[in-house]
Amino acid sequence: MIHKSGDWFFISTKNTSYVMRILDTGHVMHFSYGACIGHDAEGLEYIHDGFDVNVGCCTYYDEEHPRMFMNNLSMEYATVGKGDTREPAVDVRYSEGLSTLDPVYYEHRIFKGKDLGAVPCASADEDNVETLELVLKDKVVDLFIHLFYSSYEDEDVILRSTRIVNRTGSDVVLENVASLMLDFSDCNWELLSFDGAWARERNITRRKLHPGITVIDSKLGCSSNEHNSLVYLVRSDSGPDYGEVVATNLIYSGNHSERIDVGPFSKLRLVTGINPFGFSWTLADGESFTSPEAVVTYSSSGWNRASANFHSFIRKYIVRGKWRDRERPILINNWEATYFDFTEEKLMDLAARAKDLGIELFVLDDGWFGRRADDRSGLGDWVCNRKRLPGGLEGLGRRLHDMGLMFGIWVEPEMVNEDSELFEKHPDWRVSIPGRKPAVCRHQYVLDLSRKDVVDHLFSSLSSVFESGCVDYVKWDMNRTMSDYYSASGRSSGMGGFFHRYMLGLYSLLQRITERFPDILFEACAAGGNRFDLGMLCFMQQIWTSDNTDLHHRIGIQEGTLMGYPQSSMGAHVSASPGHQSLRKSSIESRFNVACWGAFGYELDLAKLCAEDLEAVRGQIRFYKKYRPVLQSGIFRKVVSSDDNLVFWASTLGKTTIVLEYQILNRPNTGVQDRLRLPFLNRSGVYRVEARRQIIRAEDLGDLSKAYGKTVSEEFSVTISGSLLCDYGLCLGPQFAGNGFCDGTRVLGDFGSRLYVVEEIG
Ligand code: GLA
User: Fold this and answer.
1) Mind listing the pLDDT tens digit for each residue in 400-409?
2) HSE toward the beta carbon, residue 81, CA cutoff 13 A
3) What is the helix (H) or strand (E) element at residue 658, kind and residue range?
4) Of all atoms in ligand 1, which is nearest to the CA of residue 528?
5) What is the mean pLDDT of the chain?
6) Does any ligand 1 atom lie closer than 6 A to the CB of residue 413?
7) Residue 180's CB: how many other CB atoms inside 10 A?
8) First vs last C-alpha separation in the chain
9) What is the average pLDDT across 451-471?
């Protein structure tokens, strides 16, 4: 709900309040964002008035306002030039290079729903969503700043964006337009960011904040595996279940920047939006520019609540189309099974084995098109290679459909190899600077999607592939980052307009393709998880998380990813042992226990599995199908562990909770008992806790196998009260150590894990 009372604006969701105040100078001050405080301004000025005593050489606004000390005032949207030297939200050049702006309240409107003009953007329904459009105008020139705030009542999410309208009579150059700025009255926060590189995406980094600016950003031309646009500010004493958290993310897939400025007077400012690096946008008189949307949530009860708020918001208002609420099929992908070395018969053999095990979708990865024999050729030519697939995609698709499998294909539309027909015809379509040799990555180049002719060509060539009628799923890949920033299209051919115009071109292509093929399930991919963001999720219902499917690395990758994105959006596969990225050996059961927390599949040569592993896979698929809604759409929580050698996750839907227990390294004779404490359950309920039966391979136990003599894990089923599970925790260790050996020989082993089904039965 949004309410104006005198000079105060109150934006509230079920459990949070966002409060602003118009000062007598007309400036809009950010008052607070946090727990719900209702809609009554009375007494609020006693919390803090935003002003401070002006001493020393500090700049104040004017002689009538000596306490209006701009460098310590909490602002709603900070500009340059009037004494606030902290990180600004907006930076413009007008009238021969001036940058000082002094925007004050001009007008506002409050309406149901939200403006759905920009692409991509969150959707809205009028019952749950209300929007405030707050317009500021510079005191001297006719430059207008429209600040949009949409409250998503049930999800405790507020959506922010900014529109700059130029009515100055001449060109204005935008150097920086933040989607969201948030001022905090103290700096006692720590930062969680989600960082990495190829094969180790979105691991959580926690850091203390010190005076100065901390920058999390991407300059790669995509949202990037180096730093995701998701950030959390957390109180130092907070954890999964307790303490204050403010978390933000952007609905954008290009270069972004999150700047956290601890100012000279111990206040904190967070600014997020398109990265000012490589951004410079000319607005002619009468034109406007709208920033991507930013989402923000607040929780007073820890990180799990904040991630759950994002998950439910994303499931409802970001993910679209027929697949939004559908269960994601279990897939087999041939990439790590065959790489480029496949024939139609080899694929059919893999498909038959997959079907027999209960898999639902067959995905044909890279190599089916043009002259693609390896990664040096073929990108750009989206025509089936009939030497490999004599019946074409239609023929293969029909055979798979006849078998009862869905059919999916891989494409990488944004790229071109020099060795391709497309490049021979249109060398000028690749991103490169005239007179310079462009940098290469994986032998490929980026197509200039800021050009309409390139987008039109991709729309028609992809449409003819997808139209063949048998494609149920598409994996849309993007395997390199940008270099040689230049576009021959339109204004700002240099770097300033290039990155964002590319994104607008990509989004227009995705919009057209997804409207034209509403039945297709899309999975975004970018060399694994180099573009895992809310912009892509507006078009594609799931995203390939990482090329690294090693179970241990996936614990970190998935835990970080799930802080911002729901399980149903997170592609996770069981692949071979030793893993192709880590060379680590692990049991197939443990690989499943970690992979089943997302949109699940297998990516290995099933013909190479032994009988025990095949039996294990059959059981896994049965289990996944039974609990798929809980695993894909339940409320995810990281569970606090009594031992940092153990990781616990939980996902709850209705009365069912699935729990993962994952052990890093086996440690003999510690005397420590694994303890499962689920503080979020119903204290007055009664629960049955059962372990999933796992196949134990004799090989995994080595010499101990004779003495151990078991081929499946022991049955484990206990009934326990909710209050014991919530407050004390269930001991898991001894039940599994009862084989006469010391604790160290438990079936869990190094990187071992187990799933539990916790059912409320009374
Ligand atoms: C990227 C993807 C992989 C696979 C290959 C194919 O690396 O992340 O999953 O599709 O491309 O070339």
Assistant:
1) 999 999 999 9
2) 15
3) strand 656-663
4) 8
5) 93
6) no
7) 27
8) 37
9) 95
Residue of 441, 479, 540 to mutate, ligand 1, most atoms within 8 A of C-beta: 479
Counts of helices then strands in the chain (DSSP H, E):
15, 38
Residue from 364, 547, 549 whose mutation best tests the ligand 1 pocket (most atoms within 8 A of CB): 547
**Residue 495 pLDDT exceeds 80:** no
Question: Residue 578 to residues 284, 581, 582, 602, 604: CA-CA distances in angstroms?
Answer: 58, 9, 7, 15, 11
Is residue 294 helix, strand or coil? strand
Q: How far is the centre of ligand 1, averaged over its atoms, from the C-alpha of 163 (Å)?
A: 37
Q: Once rounded to an integer, what is the mean pLDDT over residues 425-434?
A: 95
The amino acid sitting at 184 is F
Whose alpha carbon is nearest atom 2 of ligand 1? 527
Residue with tokens 């359950």: 681
Count how many residues are written for the chain: 762
Distance 411 CA to ligand 1 centre (A): 10
Ligand 1 atom nearest residue 375's Cα: 12
Tell me, using a 6 A CB cutoff, whether residue 365 lines ligand 1. Answer: yes
CA distance 649 to 560: 12
- Measured between alpha carbons, how far is 235 from 645 in angstroms, rounded to an integer? 24
Token pair of 716 as six digits: 């484990």
Whole-angstrom distance, CA of residue 236 vs CA of residue 238: 6
pTM metric for this prediction: 0.97
3-state secondary structure of 656: strand
Contact assessment for residue 680 and residue 652, using Cβ atoms and an 8 Å cutoff: yes
Amino acid present at 476: W
Q: Using alpha carbons only, what angle is made at residue 23 by residues 20 and 29, rounded to the nearest 5 degrees?
A: 35
CA dihedral 528, 532, 535, 539 (to 10 degrees): 50
Region 324-351: mean pLDDT is 98
Asked if residues 334 and 342 have their Cβ atoms less than 8 Å apart, the reply is: yes
**477 CB less than 6 Å from ligand 1?**
yes
Is the link from the previous residue into 578 a cis peptide, with omega within 30 of 0?
Answer: yes
Among 342, 412, 477, 581, say which to mutate for ligand 1: greatest number of ligand atoms within 8 Å of CB.
477
pLDDT at 741: 38
Q: Distance from the CA of 490 to the center of ligand 1, in angstroms?
A: 33
Query: In sequence order, what DSSP letters do the residues of 495-508 get, joined into one string?
Result: HHHHHHHHHHHHHH
**Nearest alpha carbon to residue 493 among 454, 438, 448, 459:** 448
Atom of ligand 1 nearest to the CA of 527: 8
Catalytic annotation, residues: 477, 547
* pLDDT value, residue 43: 82
**Cβ(528) to ligand 1 under 6 A?**
yes
| Segment 120-141, tens digit of pLDDT | 999 999 999 999 999 999 999 9
Question: Which ligand 1 atom minimizes the distance to the CA of 547?
Answer: 8
Q: Is 410's C-beta closer than 6 angstroms to any atom of ligand 1?
A: yes
pLDDT, tens digit, 9 for 90 and up, residues 711-757: 777 677 899 999 999 999 998 864 444 343 333 335 577 899 999 99
Asked if residue 473 has its Cβ within 6 Å of ligand 1, the reply is no
Q: Please report how many Cα atoms fall inside a 13 Å half-sphere around the Cα of residue 21, on the Cβ side.
A: 18
Please tell me which residue, 696 or 233, carries the higher pLDDT value. 233
CB of 525 closer than 6 angstroms to any ligand 1 atom: yes
